[in-house]
Every structure is written in structure tokens, then in C-alpha cells.
Model the fold of this input.
Amino acid sequence: MSHYDKHVFFCVNQRPAGEDCCNNHQAQAARDYVKDKVKQLGLSTDERTMRINSAGCLGRCELGPVLVVYPEAVWYTYVDQSDLDEIIEEHLKNGRVVERLKI
Done:
């Protein structure tokens, strides 16, 4: 059993100049946005409910930016805040996988 109901990892890896990586797509800002939004919506009411983490390279740079939600092990890519909002609302809040963003 997972320690958290939902545990979200954002790849925020920065590769050397010129190499594609998630952080070239403002991954850290996306992670910060989701963390703040989850708190604002009251989805993380205690330390066990939900955790939003930064991760090093998740090895899927060509599909980036990427995040993964556990315990379901669902991998997503995203383009903008509306994609992140959809992941928050559908997956994190309501438990429904966002098929169009799944990788």
C-alpha cells in the first residue's frame, strides 16, 4: 500500500545546454503550480493524502514534460496550465485518468 493516496512526481531535470529535457518546458513552475493548486483546493488535508514532488530525470525526455501519478503509475505529458488543471480535477480529485494526456 502506498504511503500517500496520490503521489505525483514531476520531472524537473535540467540537461546541458541544447539537450531536450523537461525543465526546458518550465517543469519546475508547473510543479509549483500543481502543489499550490492542490493545497488551495484542499486536496491535501494531511500529510498522507497527497504529495507533489520534484524528481530528477524520469527517462522520457522525448515525451516531455512528464509527470507520473502513483499508486496508479499513470504517466502524463502536458502543455499548459489547462492541461494541469484537467489532471488535478479529473485524476487527483476524481480518480479518472485523463486519456488524452496519458503517455
Q: What stands out?
A: Residues 27-40 form the longest helix (14 residues).
